[in-house]
Each structure stands twice: as C-alpha cells, then as structure tokens.
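Lab manual, section 2.4: Encoding a predicted structure.

Procedure: take the sequence of the chain (246 residues), apply the prediction step described in section 2.3, and record the output as structure tokens. A sample record is shown.
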Amino acid sequence: MFWADRVVDDIAKKAKPGAKLVVRDEKTASGRVHIGSMRGVAIHGVVSHVLNERGFNAEYLYEINDFDPMDGIPAELPAAEWEQYLGLPLCSVPSPDGKAKNFAEYYATEFEGVIKEAGFEPKYYRASELYASGKMNNAIRTALKNASEIRRIYREVSGSKKDDTWLPVSMVCEKCGKIGTTQAHGYDGEKVYYKCIAGAGGAKGCGHEGGASPFNGGGKLPWKVEWPAKWEVLNVAIEGAGKDHS
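Recorded output:
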C-alpha cells in the first residue's frame, strides 16, 4: 500500500468525508533553503492530494516564517556587512539583491519556485502578516497569563529551566526594531516590559528598556509555544513532525 494511503486511512477514522481539513507546513526564510526541506513539502502535499481524492476538503497551507529573528548570516554574504542586521525580524532585513521586498522574500521566492516546479501548489501566507492581523493575539494573551505553567512544562519536558520572570514572548524593540535581542520580564495585562540586551548568533541589543503591547505584531511567541498556537489559530488538522520537534 502507498504510504499516503495508510496515512489517509488513519485520518479517515477520525474525520467525516467532506469535512474541511487544514494541512500545514512551514519554513523560516533565513537563507537559501536546503533540499531536505522539500521532504515536508512533498509529504504534506501528497497527503493533501490523496485526501481530496478521497472526498475530503483538504486545504494545504504553507507558512513562510519571516518574523523570526535573523540569527545567522548565510555563507555567501559578507559577515562584516550583515552582522548589523542580526536580531531583526527577517521581514525587516533588506534583500541581498536590493530588489526583493526584504531578506525573507528574496529566499522565499526561489523556494516557492522550486515547490511549484515539483508540482505542489500550497496556499502561502507570511508569519509577519499572521501576527500583524491580530489573529495571534488571543494565543499571546493565553500564553502570557499562563507563563508559570509554560515554564513548568519547559522544565519537566525538556529540562530547560526558566527564570521566574521569564515570559513566553519576544518583543519588537521600540527603539532598534530587533526582536531577537529582547528579554521580557513583566506583563500587566496590556503591556509587556522588556530589556533589549543580546540574542543568538552574536546579535547586539541597543540597551533600551520599556513596555509595549505584544499584540498586532508587537511581539511573537517562542517556537515551542508558537507551534501549537498556530494549530488553534489556523484550525490545523494535519501537520507532521520529527521526534526532535514533537
């Protein structure tokens, strides 16, 4: 039996024929995409196709994550010229060719072309737009209200110990615009208070301390919280992952 038929057989036991099923995958556009990323594209694309053949109403969503911080510089770019952008959301970093809308779009456009050439046509959306639209607001609010519980889960599941002031949100610094350098430490129900210090990959903060709304694109959730939050926000029914993520 074809592997996709086995997967869909399992799905069919849990869903009604004709029901809309959202199939989702994503890629952070932080550089030229490795061929290995086509594995997820193909798996989700084929499952979506077979679901539709079986009478389900499957929609294949593919996220270009352009709201993650730039935490590394692609080997083909001169580090000395690009290190100034470390910590900025990828959608705020200029395009390497000076033509694309931003850094993320430069690499996403090439990847989307490869996906199309391979025969898959998912519905694309951008993470920055998802946050800016306000659709992630309730998820952010829920995470912040349950920060202590999230810290407990991190500790028990992965052994990652967070400080008692740690909050599950990265704020966009009001002064320098970086998102990978801020450390949130307080929340009053409307504003998140943070310091812009430092981030991954050697990103340098500007030292600003302040408070701002985390909603409508003012902040983003960390990956381990953001992932299941998107399942709720986008009503995702099917999304595969390796054991490293699960």
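Check your result against the sample. The first strand starts at residue 20 and ends at 28.
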